[in-house]
Write a sequence for this structure.
């Protein structure tokens, strides 16, 4: 029995994803496909447009055999964190033979991905010096890294592989596999259709971003006919139902605004208040809610502090655009803002990473005819497979339970946003069972 792994967001699921699953099974000569999928919040630094169970159902309807959830701290992290968390799960399941990922260039070999991954994993002195030189020149980290890799490997492949999100993720998947000494074989698959960042519908396959944009623009009119050709026939019904209650980034604005403007220096501590009664000067605190949050550096924290009141009244996208700078990309800012909202802290994530990285595989759904795969996972997996939320406390260590609580809190927040906007019934993780198809 052979199994191929896929790492995805499916935000939302479309025909390109269906093609990927089919080709992944073909290229890996696999009987089954296991998907590690992002939860209700995604790497773009925003809520997924459809909830995780809806997206998992669509994937299962279109060729996936089993879907597990990527913990939110990795799903919303940088490419390195995203890839490492997902690869750790696939490797720990003990049944995955290959990992098939999308790539933007057909003429770049798997060896090119592996060579760059090896360099980034080792980080020799020449690479570190070149990277520091690029940063000193004012380049963003992604551009400085690409320049450093190119100079060390003397290869133009670095420009191609480190210039698009899918290729960068491919490199990070290979790096994570090497770091774990995993036996899983990486398989790049040329991505078809529109570029990843394209916001316009067109061609045989379009980007998920173009579909999200169309849903957002046509939400009030309910005019989704233009999307029909990009949604697999097997899940059009689910897609149509989900389009009635999409979740958009601006739903997070009340929470984000509160987090931005209500820093600790706005509220004197009890000690400070007592000082004021004695007539002594009030000591102003220097720490803010930004300190310690994943992806918020001291430079970004200072910029957020400076611009926080200018953010009031702006959309989620406008806030990210306002805060970005020449050295700090908008993608980085968006992740940081979401980590602030979800209270994802660097110290917690680093502690988890140094103690195994992941502590469970949360089952979102599976196909009934994949029973042999599920049986094998239960025997071979190094991680507990959680199918019922109520079982988590009895299966997890204190550290694992801490990560689990963060995941459930994020999902509960997501569902509360949807309930507040549409009046849909609120269901907790403890009331939802894995999808069986």
């Amino acid at each position: 029995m052979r199994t191929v792994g896929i790492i995805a967001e499916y935000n939302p699921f479309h025909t390109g994803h269906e093609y990927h699953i089919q080709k992944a099974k073909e290229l890996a000569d696999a009987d089954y496909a296991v998907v590690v999928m992002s939860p209700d919040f995604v790497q773009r630094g925003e809520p997924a447009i459809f909830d995780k169970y809806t997206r998992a159902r669509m994937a299962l309807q279109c060729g996936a055999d089993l879907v597990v959830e990527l913990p939110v701290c990795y799903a919303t992290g940088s490419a390195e964190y995203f890839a490492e968390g997902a690869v750790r799960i696939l490797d720990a399941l003990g049944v995955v033979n290959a990992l098939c990922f999308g790539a933007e260039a057909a003429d770049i070999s798997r060896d090119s991905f592996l060579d760059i991954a090896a360099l980034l994993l080792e980080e020799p002195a020449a690479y570190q010096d070149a990277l520091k030189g690029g940063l000193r020149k004012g380049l963003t980290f992604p551009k400085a890294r690409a320049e450093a890799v190119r100079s060390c490997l003397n290869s133009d492949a670095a420009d191609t592989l480190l210039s698009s999100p899918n290729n960068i993720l491919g490199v990070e998947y290979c790096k994570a596999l090497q770091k774990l000494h995993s036996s899983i074989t990486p398989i790049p698959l040329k991505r078809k259709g529109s570029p990843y960042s394209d916001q316009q519908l067109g061609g045989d396959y379009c980007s998920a971003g173009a579909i999200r944009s169309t849903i957002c623009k046509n939400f009030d009119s309910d005019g989704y006919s233009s999307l029909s050709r990009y949604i697999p026939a097997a899940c059009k019904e689910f897609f149509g139902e989900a389009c009635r209650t999409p979740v958009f980034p601006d739903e997070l604005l009340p929470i984000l605004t509160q987090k931005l403007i209500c820093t600790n220096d706005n509220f004197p501590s009890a000690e400070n208040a007592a000082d004021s009664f004695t007539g002594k000067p009030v000591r102003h605190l220097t720490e803010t809610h930004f300190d310690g949050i994943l992806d918020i550096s001291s430079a970004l924290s200072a910029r957020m502090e400076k611009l926080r009141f200018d953010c009031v009244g702006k959309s989620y996208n406008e806030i990210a655009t306002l805060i970005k700078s020449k050295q700090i990309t908008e993608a980085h800012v968006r992740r940081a803002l979401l980590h602030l909202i979800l209270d994802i802290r660097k110290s917690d994530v680093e502690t988890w990473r140094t103690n195994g990285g992941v502590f469970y595989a949360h089952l979102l759904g599976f196909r009934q005819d994949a029973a042999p795969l599920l049986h094998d996972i239960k025997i071979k997996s190094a991680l507990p497979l959680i199918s019922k939320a109520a079982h988590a406390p009895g299966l997890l260590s204190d550290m694992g339970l801490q990560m689990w609580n963060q995941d459930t809190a994020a999902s509960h927040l997501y569902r509360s946003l949807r309930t507040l906007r549409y009046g849909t019934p609120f269901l907790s993780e403890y009331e939802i069972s894995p999808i069986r198809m």
